[in-house]
Design a protein that fits this description.
alpha/beta; Rossmann fold; five-stranded parallel sheet; about 15% strand
Length: about 475
Amino acid sequence: MADTTVVNERILVVDDDEDMLSTCRKFLEREGYAVSTAARGDRGLEAYVTGGFDLVLTDMKMPGMNGMQLLQGIRAQNPDALVIVFTGFGTIEDAVNAMKEGAFDFITKPFTPDHLSVAVRRALRQRQLETENLALQKQLEVTFRFDNIVGQSPAMQRMFDMVRKIADTQANVLILGESGTGKELVARSLHANSGRKKKSFVPLNCGGIPEHLVESELFGHEKGSFTGVVTSRAGLLEHTAGGTFFLDEISELPLNLQVKLLRVLEDRKIRRVGSNRELPVNLRLISATNRDLEAMVKEGEFREDLFYRVNTFVIRVPPLRERRGDIPLLSNHFLNLYQKDADRGIRSVSDEAMGMLQSHSWQGNVRELQHVIERAVALASGTRIEPSDLPDTLGSGSVRSGDFSDRLEMPFKDAKESVVEEFEQTYIRHLLTEHGGNISRAAEHSGIDRRSLHRLLLKHEIDASHFSG
C-alpha cells in the first residue's frame, strides 16, 4: 500500500551533470518533495518563470548561463526567491558572492544525502517561519486564540482558564503532555494572547534534529567555528527578537547545552558558536515535554537549576483518554476540515463508527485521531463515515473478513510482500505518533537500530517531522 504523505514544496534542481540531477531527484522525491530538473541555466530560468517553485538548487559552474546569472535572473523575477547553490571546494568564494546576491545557502560538493536534506529543510523551514509569522500577525485574533482550541471537557476548561491567566505575563512556561496532545498549539495560543503577539513565534523540536546540530540551530555560529563553515549565521534564539521561543522536547536537550540555555535565561545574552562576543536577546521561553522532568533531575539527566527556571508556570495538556467527551467534537472538527479540502460531501460520523472512536485507547492522542479521520474521509463512499472506513486497530482486534481479498489472486511472494509493506507502514506510523516523531526514542522503544529505521522511513517515504509537535 503506497504511503499517502504529501509534501507540498516544489523544488527545481539545475545542473549540467546528469548524474547529479538524477541523484538529487531520487533522494528529494524519497523525502516527499515534488522535483523538476534542468540541465542548463537558461532552461532552469524558463522552468522557474512558469513553475512556481518553492526552492531552487543550482550548480555554480555551468556552460552558457552559470549559477550566478541564473540566481540574478530568478531574483529579478522574484526578490524573495529561495535559492541554494552547489559549489566545488575551490569555488567557495563564488558561493559567498552568490549569498551576497541573495542566495540562502550553499552546499560544497561532494555532499552526502543528509547534508542535502538538512540544507533543504533549513531553507524551507525558514520560509515557513516567515510565512507563519505573517499569517500570525494578520489572523492572530481568529487562528490561534486559546478559545479556538477544540475541547469542552472539564479538563480542557481548567487548562483554558490557566492559559487566560498567564498568557500576558513574561514568565517562562512549561507545557506537559503526552505526544500528540497539542502542546505546540497551546504554546502558540499563549503567544497570540501575550504582549509579544506582533513579534515572532519561533519553534524548535530538540528531538527532531541531529544532536550535533542543536547548538548551531539555537545559538548560531561564526565563520570558521567548525569544519566547512565559511559564513556566519544567527541562531533561532537570536531570530526570536522580542517574540516567543518554543523549545519542544526540552528533555532531549544535551546537558552541555542545558548549561548554556540556563545562562541565556539568567543573563539574557547569547554567544554564537566560535565567538567571544555576547549578544543581547529578548525572548519569552515556552518549553514542552512528554517526559517526567523531575524524575530526570533525580537521575542526573536534567539540570535542577534549569528545571526551576523553565517551570515558573506549568500547563498540563490532558491525554485524549481523559477527555473522551471531546472525541465527537474533535472528530467533527477534523471531518469538516478534511471533507472541505476533498469536497467529498461527507456530513457526519455514524453512531457505530463514533462508538468505535470513543472506545479506542488513543495512545497517539489527538494527532492519532486526526490521522484516522483524514484516512476515513479519503475512504468513505457515502455521506457518512462508517466502521469500514476506520482502521482495524479500532475494532475488536480480530481480522475482518475480506481484508486480504484483493491479494488472493496475486502470486504468493507478491501478496506476502504487499502485506509486509502494509504492516511496516502501519507500525512505523504508530511508532512515530507515539514518540512524537523522535527517531532516537522510536528506535530505542522498537528495538530497531537508527540506521535501519532511517532506511524504512526512506523506503516508505515517511517524514518523521510530520509527527512532531
